[in-house]
Known about the structure:
460 residues; mainly alpha; 4 domains; two-stranded antiparallel ribbon; 5% strand
Amino acid sequence: xxxxxxxxxxxxxxxxxxxxxxxxxxxxxxxxxxxxxxxxxxxxxxxxxxxxxxxxxxxxxxxxxxxxxxxxxxxxxxxxxxxxxxxxxxxxxxxxxxxxxxxxxxxxxxxxxxxxxxxxxxxxxxxxxxxxxxxxxxxxxxxxxxxxxxxxxxxxxxxxxxxxxxxxxxxxxxxxxxxxxxxxxxxxxxxxxxxxxxxxxxxxxxxxxxxxxxxxxxxxxxxxxxxxxxxxxxxxxxxxxxxxxxxxxxxxxxxxxxxxxxxxxxxxxxxxxxxxxxxxxxxxxxxxxxxxxxxxxxxxxxxxxxxxxxxxxxxxxxxxxxxxxxxxxxxxxxxxxxxxxxxxxxxxxxxxxxxxxxxxxxxxxxxxxxxxxxxxxxxxxxxxxxxxxxxxxxxxxxxxxxxxxxxxxxxxxxxxxxxxxxxxxxxxxxxxxxxxxxxxxxxxxxxxxxxxxxxxxxxx
Length: 460
């Protein structure tokens, strides 16, 4: 840690409040910090992280401000910065960027360009954000799903857009609960049948969309009642018109079909989503959850249509929603642009055009963003983590990590030496009481240095 104290309360006229002087002081401080970091790194291996932020004018900026953000330009500028501070590209052992194609592209992306110069600069992207992007891509690429989420946001905004409407929603929900209790449709008990409200989805946490969908299904009748009231008694024609349009969408069969479909998809991905957003992550179990998530979504695609359709039809009958004849011809568009395909029936549109396509995009994105190389690299690297008293430590995983991913960093002789050191390491460090409560690799490295054990386990 570098501590720099500046006393601005000096006597006389030297107050150093000029913007130019303050910028010079900050520039000096920044240079000293950078030089100290570079001196500490020396010729050691390191990783690079690159991200952008927006200034007050909403312009995207980075630590290096670039006008051209093509992959080659980014690489050249980053290399120039590394060269300026005597950091060698061949020492890079990790890259972390966002999910944009110019960054993560396998052939011409920034990560691929660095891999050509340094084969061990593996690209590892935030796995929590990867899952979010996989879900976002599904909503964008499938038109019907994209429109569904637009409608969902609009419906929620209409209903909870004011305190008065929110109160009406809760009152309608309370009446519904009372009627269902009176007819023995639901049971009573402590904590059961609590009155809630619709949940707005957040931009950065895609898992919040799951809560929005679940809340709407739970309060569907109450939501319909409030929107219908607004369409008839709204303060002006715009409120009445917007509510009428929202009601038509909300009570359509296609909307409730996608509502239940997305609930099923997000019910499967929500477990992984919650795990990846935890402050302290068990990466090994998270990677296994990625695998089980893919399997369950595949199972939904193969065997889930009949069950989903039955649930949607039951829901539609319960809420008096018109259910189309699944064997009728599907008509696309309206008015003079309406098209009818003799070979396309309603069930084909719902099952193939929405259900299958939405799930296929989901599977494709999960497989693309959670590739086998990165997943295996994370799993093998987890063996070095001291968390939970070295629970994940396995000599074979560490040796495989070296053999498969870093063969040029270790000669055959050094690989044998590493294996021998790991056998002593397992009995010495892992069993030592001073190391049992460590939770990060950086803590472990400091502990090895302070205790002097680093001399015995340099290959580790």
